[in-house]
Design a protein that fits this description.
Blueprint (H helix, E strand, L loop, with lengths): L4 E8 L3 H12 L4 E4 L16 E3 L10 H18 L4 E2 L3 E6 L5 H10 L4 E4 L1 H7 L9 E6 L3 E3 L1 H14 L3 E3 L4 E7 L2 E6 L2 E10 L5 H4 L8 E12 L12 E6 L2 E6 L7 E5 L18 H14 L3 E15 L6 E4 L5 E5 L9 H12 L13 H11 L3
Parallel strand pairs: 1-2, 1-12, 2-9, 5-14, 12-19
Antiparallel strand pairs: 3-8, 4-8, 5-7, 6-7, 10-11, 11-12, 13-16, 13-17, 14-15, 15-16, 18-19
The structure holds flavin-adenine dinucleotide.
């Protein structure tokens, strides 16, 4: 008979949020084990792809800005511990026609929380950021606390610091069942069984497999990351331009200055239908989509060669309301973070800390009511046809 390994807390999925939960739990001295189906870093997770935008002035609403202020401190703490800048403090620019609906909530967050920022009219942007094509009715809002996060480095940093604080790991091990019992939860994997008082599920786009009880609340959406090559790449260095979100003639794109020294990330949005199972996600781009992305990128930044120089597809877990799920499930011993809805990386350390709060039954300041499973169920019931 095989022995069951006993731990206080088990974190299932060591990607964006799970690696941070492990870090925050280990730092509190909790006896914690992390289980990950791939390696310490991998290319399949919602986090893969070189960079993620970080903003403090949340266009998603005031609800999120206090969490992002705390997240920024945690990103800095993580960077200090790792000895490298996981967060590049280059600022985050929202550039859009003055009447674009995202600009108002961004400015509201800035005013409400007195965030450092700059606002530019069209000529101001042309003078400061000549990389962009600018129309006369464009406005730029620069969130000076924003920037870009290096996701692979962040996951590596968090797991390294978790290990330094005593966390244990199982890589290349897939969790196949989670079974609550009288004393906690039994975790069945492809490499033995484990047991813990609490289990934290941070399985990202695999949530629908790992936690069937909330699978109806979670879908999987896929996004394309695309890079293009400037003719004068030196003008696109992080010292000279911020991370950005650009809306131009109904096309939304986001991007980051050059990090590889020859191209910049600029991702005009390509729409894919949501799916409910990882294996069903889209995995390729058509020639037409690539041509379109290259042309849009060059329209937004005229110095770019109008072709995509590299691309990759990544999937994220999603909810209908775009609110994350951060809650303890009905039996009380399984805690979940999911449905990050294309927005989760910037929050990763604060959601990790919130999961640590929930797992240790402390006050969880940022486990807000709209993130509860019941709130998601109520929202789903409202939109369901009678
Ligand atoms: C293309 C793209 C661009 C984005 N851009 C931004 C951005 O600019 N800014 C921003 O803030 N957010 C952005 N996001 C969103 C953000 O990246 C995600 O919300 C976040 O990475 C989700 O983290 P996660 O921990 O839920 O999932 P993941 O990072 O995927 O982690 C889940 C982990 O669980 C593991 N796992 C799953 N099932 C099992 C199992 N059965 N057993 C063991 N391990 C398991 C997986 O292997 C994985 O490592 C973007 C997302 C995408 C896809």
């Amino acid at each position: 008979m095989s022995t069951v390994v006993e731990r206080s807390v088990i974190v299932i999925g060591l990607g964006s949020i799970g690696s941070m939960a492990l870090w925050r739990l280990a730092e509190r001295g909790v006896d914690v084990l992390g289980i990950e189906q791939y390696g310490r870093i991998h290319t399949e997770g919602a986090y893969a792809g070189e960079s993620r935008l970080f903003r403090v002035a949340a266009k998603e609403g005031e609800l999120f800005t206090p969490a992002l202020i705390r997240a920024r401190h945690l990103w800095q703490e993580l960077s200090a511990g790792y000895g490298r800048d996981v967060l590049l403090p280059v600022g985050a620019l929202s550039l859009a026609p003055g009447d674009h609906p995202d600009l108002k909530p961004t400015l509201r967050a800035i005013e409400q929380f007195d965030l450092p920022h700059e606002v530019f009219d069209a000529d101001g942007i042309r003078a400061r950021y000549p990389q962009f094509h600018v129309d006369d009715d464009d406005i730029g809002i620069l969130d000076l606390s924003g920037g870009a996060v290096r996701p692979e480095m962040a996951v590596a940093a968090a797991t390294e610091q978790a290990a330094a604080n005593g966390a244990d790991f199982r890589y290349h091990t897939t969790v196949t069942a989670i079974e609550p019992d009288d004393t906690g939860v039994r975790v069945v994997t492809t490499d033995g069984e484990y047991h813990a008082r609490k289990v934290v599920v941070t399985a990202g786009p695999w949530t629908t497999r790992v936690l069937p009880e909330i699978a109806d609340l979670v879908s999987i959406r896929t996004f394309a990351l695309t890079w293009a090559m400037p003719r004068h790449v030196e003008r696109f260095a992080p010292e000279l331009m911020p991370g950005f979100m650009r809306d131009l003639d109904e096309v939304h794109a986001f991007g980051v200055p050059t990090l590889d020294g020859y191209s910049i990330k600029i991702c005009p949005h390509i729409d894919f239908d949501p799916v409910h199972e990882w294996a069903d996600r889209p995995t390729g781009l058509t020639r037409e989509q690539l041509v379109w992305a290259g042309e849009q990128a060059q329209r937004m930044m005229p110095d770019l060669i109008p072709d995509v120089s590299r691309w990759s597809l990544h999937s994220d877990s999603w909810s209908d309301t775009k609110m994350p799920i951060l809650d303890t499930t009905a039996d009380g011993s399984v805690i979940v973070a999911s449905a990050m809805s294309g927005n989760g990386f910037k929050f990763a350390p604060i959601w990790g800390e919130t999961l640590a709060d929930l797992a240790t039954e402390g006050p969880a300041e940022f486990a807000l009511a709209p993130f509860r499973i019941a709130a998601h169920r109520a929202a789903a019931a409202e939109v369901a046809p009678a």
